[in-house]
Amino acid sequence: NEIKNLPSSSLGASEHSPLEVLQAYLTLARLGESQPVSFIKFAESGTQDKIYQFQPQSQQVASATLTGEIVSVLKESTQTGTAKALSQTSFFTAGKTGTTSDGKDMWFAGFTPRLVALTWVGYDNHQATRFSGSSAALPIWKNFIESVSVKHDSKLVYPWPEDLHKKTVYSDFDKKDIELYMRSRGLFDFL
User: Second label for 61, Cα 20 to 30 Å away, from 29, 105, 123, 126?
Assistant: First the structure.
Protein backbone atom coordinates (compact mmCIF):
# COMPACT_ATOMS: atom_id res chain seq x y z
CA ASN A 1 0.00 0.00 0.00
CA GLU A 2 1.08 3.55 -0.62
CA ILE A 3 2.49 5.55 2.28
CA LYS A 4 1.15 9.10 2.16
CA ASN A 5 3.58 11.95 2.67
CA LEU A 6 2.18 13.01 6.06
CA PRO A 7 3.96 13.54 9.41
CA SER A 8 1.85 10.78 11.00
CA SER A 9 3.27 8.26 8.50
CA SER A 10 6.58 8.28 10.38
CA LEU A 11 4.69 6.90 13.39
CA GLY A 12 3.22 4.02 11.42
CA ALA A 13 -0.16 5.63 10.77
CA SER A 14 -0.54 4.02 7.36
CA GLU A 15 -2.36 0.77 6.71
CA HIS A 16 -0.43 -2.30 5.52
CA SER A 17 -0.93 -6.03 5.34
CA PRO A 18 1.14 -8.26 7.63
CA LEU A 19 3.08 -9.42 4.55
CA GLU A 20 4.01 -5.81 3.68
CA VAL A 21 5.17 -5.17 7.26
CA LEU A 22 7.16 -8.41 7.25
CA GLN A 23 8.84 -7.36 3.98
CA ALA A 24 9.77 -3.99 5.49
CA TYR A 25 11.25 -5.58 8.63
CA LEU A 26 13.21 -8.08 6.53
CA THR A 27 14.75 -5.10 4.71
CA LEU A 28 15.56 -3.43 8.04
CA ALA A 29 17.09 -6.62 9.45
CA ARG A 30 19.26 -6.92 6.33
CA LEU A 31 20.47 -3.30 6.75
CA GLY A 32 18.62 -1.88 3.76
CA GLU A 33 19.01 -4.89 1.49
CA SER A 34 15.62 -5.89 0.11
CA GLN A 35 14.88 -9.53 -0.60
CA PRO A 36 11.39 -10.71 -1.57
CA VAL A 37 9.46 -12.67 1.05
CA SER A 38 8.09 -16.02 -0.05
CA PHE A 39 6.32 -18.72 1.88
CA ILE A 40 7.09 -21.30 -0.80
CA LYS A 41 10.69 -22.54 -1.06
CA PHE A 42 10.05 -25.07 -3.81
CA ALA A 43 7.38 -27.18 -5.50
CA GLU A 44 7.67 -30.74 -6.76
CA SER A 45 5.69 -32.70 -9.30
CA GLY A 46 4.03 -36.02 -8.49
CA THR A 47 7.27 -37.70 -9.56
CA GLN A 48 9.23 -35.50 -7.14
CA ASP A 49 10.84 -33.41 -9.90
CA LYS A 50 11.38 -29.82 -8.78
CA ILE A 51 9.10 -27.66 -10.87
CA TYR A 52 9.71 -24.44 -8.92
CA GLN A 53 12.59 -23.21 -6.76
CA PHE A 54 12.41 -19.84 -4.98
CA GLN A 55 15.57 -17.94 -5.84
CA PRO A 56 15.39 -14.50 -4.24
CA GLN A 57 17.24 -11.61 -5.82
CA SER A 58 18.47 -9.03 -3.32
CA GLN A 59 19.15 -5.37 -3.91
CA GLN A 60 20.34 -2.55 -1.66
CA VAL A 61 17.43 -0.09 -1.42
CA ALA A 62 18.58 2.01 1.53
CA SER A 63 21.85 3.01 3.14
CA ALA A 64 23.16 0.36 5.53
CA THR A 65 24.33 3.14 7.86
CA LEU A 66 20.97 4.92 8.04
CA THR A 67 19.12 1.62 8.31
CA GLY A 68 21.49 0.59 11.11
CA GLU A 69 20.53 3.70 13.06
CA ILE A 70 16.85 2.77 12.70
CA VAL A 71 17.67 -0.79 13.84
CA SER A 72 19.38 0.75 16.88
CA VAL A 73 16.13 2.47 17.84
CA LEU A 74 14.17 -0.76 17.27
CA LYS A 75 16.70 -2.57 19.48
CA GLU A 76 16.13 0.02 22.20
CA SER A 77 12.36 -0.56 21.94
CA THR A 78 13.03 -4.13 23.10
CA GLN A 79 15.05 -2.87 26.05
CA THR A 80 13.04 0.04 27.44
CA GLY A 81 10.06 0.62 25.14
CA THR A 82 6.75 -1.08 24.51
CA ALA A 83 8.60 -4.33 23.68
CA LYS A 84 10.70 -4.39 26.87
CA ALA A 85 9.33 -7.86 27.65
CA LEU A 86 12.16 -8.96 25.33
CA SER A 87 14.87 -7.27 27.41
CA GLN A 88 15.71 -10.48 29.27
CA THR A 89 16.26 -12.65 26.20
CA SER A 90 19.77 -14.07 25.85
CA PHE A 91 20.08 -12.91 22.24
CA PHE A 92 19.78 -9.74 20.14
CA THR A 93 16.25 -8.61 19.34
CA ALA A 94 14.90 -5.51 17.63
CA GLY A 95 11.32 -4.65 16.77
CA LYS A 96 8.21 -2.61 17.35
CA THR A 97 4.73 -3.14 18.69
CA GLY A 98 1.72 -1.67 16.96
CA THR A 99 -1.91 -1.08 17.89
CA THR A 100 -4.50 0.68 15.77
CA SER A 101 -6.20 3.59 17.50
CA ASP A 102 -9.52 1.75 17.40
CA GLY A 103 -8.02 -1.40 18.97
CA LYS A 104 -8.89 -3.63 16.01
CA ASP A 105 -5.35 -4.67 15.07
CA MET A 106 -2.38 -5.49 17.29
CA TRP A 107 1.01 -6.61 16.02
CA PHE A 108 4.68 -7.05 16.75
CA ALA A 109 7.32 -7.17 14.04
CA GLY A 110 10.91 -7.92 14.94
CA PHE A 111 14.06 -9.87 14.30
CA THR A 112 17.14 -11.57 15.66
CA PRO A 113 20.40 -11.77 13.68
CA ARG A 114 19.01 -14.92 12.03
CA LEU A 115 15.22 -14.65 11.86
CA VAL A 116 12.50 -12.10 11.04
CA ALA A 117 8.93 -12.71 12.23
CA LEU A 118 5.66 -10.88 12.68
CA THR A 119 2.60 -11.64 14.77
CA TRP A 120 -0.78 -10.04 14.16
CA VAL A 121 -3.77 -10.35 16.47
CA GLY A 122 -7.27 -9.25 15.65
CA TYR A 123 -10.69 -10.35 14.47
CA ASP A 124 -11.49 -10.90 10.80
CA ASN A 125 -14.69 -8.88 11.29
CA HIS A 126 -12.67 -5.85 12.56
CA GLN A 127 -14.14 -6.06 16.07
CA ALA A 128 -12.34 -3.86 18.58
CA THR A 129 -10.51 -5.33 21.58
CA ARG A 130 -9.03 -3.95 24.78
CA PHE A 131 -5.57 -5.33 23.98
CA SER A 132 -2.42 -3.76 22.57
CA GLY A 133 0.50 -4.95 20.50
CA SER A 134 2.57 -5.39 23.65
CA SER A 135 -0.12 -7.32 25.55
CA ALA A 136 -1.43 -9.54 22.72
CA ALA A 137 1.01 -9.89 19.79
CA LEU A 138 4.36 -9.54 21.59
CA PRO A 139 3.92 -12.55 23.93
CA ILE A 140 3.15 -14.78 20.94
CA TRP A 141 6.22 -13.48 19.05
CA LYS A 142 8.40 -13.92 22.14
CA ASN A 143 7.29 -17.52 22.69
CA PHE A 144 7.94 -18.40 19.06
CA ILE A 145 11.33 -16.68 18.86
CA GLU A 146 12.52 -18.20 22.12
CA SER A 147 11.47 -21.66 20.98
CA VAL A 148 13.50 -21.43 17.76
CA SER A 149 16.32 -19.07 18.75
CA VAL A 150 17.69 -19.89 22.19
CA LYS A 151 19.90 -22.72 20.93
CA HIS A 152 21.07 -20.88 17.82
CA ASP A 153 21.11 -17.14 18.43
CA SER A 154 22.59 -16.57 21.89
CA LYS A 155 26.12 -16.26 20.46
CA LEU A 156 25.19 -14.39 17.26
CA VAL A 157 26.13 -10.73 17.08
CA TYR A 158 24.17 -8.26 14.98
CA PRO A 159 26.33 -7.09 12.04
CA TRP A 160 26.38 -3.33 12.72
CA PRO A 161 27.86 -1.25 9.87
CA GLU A 162 31.47 -0.27 10.59
CA ASP A 163 30.69 3.46 10.49
CA LEU A 164 28.22 3.17 13.39
CA HIS A 165 29.55 3.48 16.91
CA LYS A 166 27.97 2.58 20.22
CA LYS A 167 27.02 5.71 22.15
CA THR A 168 25.58 5.82 25.64
CA VAL A 169 23.01 8.56 26.19
CA TYR A 170 20.85 9.40 29.17
CA SER A 171 17.13 8.93 28.64
CA ASP A 172 15.09 11.47 30.59
CA PHE A 173 12.02 9.31 29.95
CA ASP A 174 13.54 6.09 31.31
CA LYS A 175 15.77 7.86 33.84
CA LYS A 176 18.74 5.74 32.84
CA ASP A 177 21.50 5.37 30.27
CA ILE A 178 20.63 3.67 27.00
CA GLU A 179 22.93 2.47 24.23
CA LEU A 180 22.40 3.47 20.62
CA TYR A 181 24.48 2.79 17.52
CA MET A 182 24.98 5.93 15.47
CA ARG A 183 27.31 7.81 13.18
CA SER A 184 29.69 10.34 14.68
CA ARG A 185 27.37 12.95 13.18
CA GLY A 186 23.96 12.34 11.74
CA LEU A 187 20.48 11.23 12.63
CA PHE A 188 20.93 11.62 16.41
CA ASP A 189 23.00 14.83 16.52
CA PHE A 190 20.63 16.28 19.11
CA LEU A 191 21.66 13.64 21.70
Answer: 105
